[in-house]
Amino acid sequence: MSAEPSITAAFKTGANDDNVLFGENQTEAERLEMQHKVIYESMPQLVTAPIDLSKGGFKILDQATGSGIWIRDVRAATDGAQNTWVGTDIADYFPTDPPSDTTYHHQSMTQPWPRDWEGTFDLVHSRLALPGVGTTKLQDAVNGLISLVKPGGWIQLAEIEWKDWNVGPQGMIFNTAGREMFSLVSNGQGVDLREKLTPMFEEAGLQNIDFKNFTILSGARASERVRETSEKSVFATAMGISMTTKMLPPISVPREQLDALPQKLVEEARRDGWEFKIFSLWAQKPEK
Questions:
Q1: What are the beta bridge partners of residue 56?
Q2: Is 196 exposed, middle or buried (0-12, 13-18, 19+ CB in 10 A)?
Q3: CA 167 – CA 222 distance, rounded (Å)
Q4: pTM, whole model, 2 decimals?
């Protein structure tokens, strides 16, 4: 087993008006890649909206794309179909030499989108990004994403489902700390998102709204292929929470527990394994 990874959070302001949670550095890019690999192992259907990208001819946006790993894996699963892929993020971890059908752009979900992008995407995807709206109104950010979907196209949002985790005591501390941290940095907007997003979709006039929950396996319950990666991902994310909460008003979890959480959490995951939840929610923009 390799040594535990080191990670430093770089949360810029307690109000999160810069919409950065865990920092903007190469280590954070590595954390996001590990997180993706663990999710992909338990959620092989990365596109849950009923759109068959293998037919080709589609334009797809991955908002908060990070290193573009979601685009690369979905693109690889489309059997060489000719689609147009666009990735956006506020931290430029982008590949330096993407294929000709893929472009990356610096863009925040809390800022106005390019006018010529409106109504042009067959699929708009965002995963584990919405708690980063910070001081921006969540509905404004969601409506901005919806505005990019073309008539008949789909939007798919995937976020943490905080209920019904199958974890030990350290996992529950992590759950509590994560919920409270995301609530603090987003003025209460960044948790229980499925319950908030569904009526937003309805108000925007979207149709065929549906969702699916996925159980993500870590540590001893993960497959051998991603077990070590899952332990590193757990450690890195817990370290991010521990460091970020130092810059926020106190939460209910005592400081000493937050400081000890990364190491204790990875030990628990390695020994017993644990399971957390992600939901994927999708909806279609009407043809007219």
A1: none
A2: middle
A3: 13
A4: 0.90
- Reduce the secondary structure of the chain to three states and give it as a string: CCCCCCCCCCCCCCCCCCCCCCCCCHHHHHHHHHHHHHHHHHCCCCCCCCCCHHHCCCEEEEECCCCCHHHHHHHHCCCCCCCEEEEEECCCCCCCCCCCCEEEEECCCCCCCCHHHCCCEEEEEEECCHHHHCCCCHHHHHHHHHHCEEEEEEEEEEEEEEEEEECCHHHHHHHHHHHHHHHHHCCCCCCCHHHHHHHHHHHCCCEEEEEEEEEEEEHHHCCCCCHHHHHHHHHHHHHHHHHHHCCCCCCCCCHHHHHHHHHHHHHHHHHHCEEEEEEEEEEECCCC
* pLDDT, tens only, 123-150: 999 999 999 999 899 999 999 999 999 9
